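Appendix B, example 12.
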Amino acid sequence: MYLGKKIVVVMPAYNAAKTLRRTHDEVIEQGVVDLVIVVDDGSGDETVSVARQLPKTQVIVHARNLGYGGNQKTCYRAALATGADIVIMVHPDYQYTPKLMPAMVAMIANGLYPCVLGSRILGGYALRGGMPWWKYLANRLLTLVENILVGAKLGEWHTGYRAFSREVLERVPWQENSDDFVFDNQMLAQIFWAGFAVAEVSCPTRYFAEASSINFRRSVRYGFGCLGTGFRFRLARWKVVKIRLFPANLRMPDELGHA
C-alpha cells in the first residue's frame, strides 16, 4: 500500500523462466507492491512452475497463446478484479529496473499524473544499455511521427514499463485493441484521446540474451501498426471517420494533456 492505495504489478509472461524470479524479487524489494500477477501466455519453458513458487503472486495460465496484447488484457482484468488502485505493467525479462516503481507510484498516488512511463530514451540509456542501433533509430522515428499525429511530446512511445491509475484502466477502451504487440501503442493513443496527462521517468535498461525481443519482420509489422494507429487517431480527431478505438463519448479536450 502507498497512501492507502493498493498497488498491483502485472507481468505478461512468455518463456520468462530464466528472468522471472530476478524481476519479481526486485519488485518486492521496493516495499510498495501488494500483489504481483503473472499471466503466462502458453510458455514452453518452466515459467509457470517458477511463478507458482513466488510470494505475493497470483498466477494465471492461458491454455493457448493469446498474443502480447491478449496477455495484457488478462493482466488488467485480473488487477482491477483485485481492487487495485494503481497498476504497473513491467516485462518479466529483467530489461526494465523495478527500482523506479516507488517513484512511479508516488506520482500517481499523489495525484500528479494518472499515467507514468519508464522511458529508455530519456537520459540516453537505450544505446548504452545495448539497444540495437536499428531499433533505436526506428524508435526515435516512430515516436516523432506519433507525437506529431497525436499532439503529444513523449520521449518514447514504445516502452514496456507503464503505470496506470485505476481511473485510466476503467475509462480507456483497451479491450478493443489488438492482441498483438501494437496493443501498447493503441492503448497509449487512447489515453491521450481521453485527455489524460502522461509523465515519463528516465529508465536504465538491460539488453542480454534472455531479454525478450521481437524479430526484424515483426518489428516492421509493429512499426506499420503504430503508424496506422497514429493516422486513425488524427482522422478521428478531425471527425473524418469514426474509429472504434477512439469513441466520441470519451472526453477529448482541444489541448491534449502531456508531460
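The beta strands are 7-13, 35-40, 57-61, 86-90, 115-119, 161-165, 198-202. The first helix runs from residue 20 to 29.
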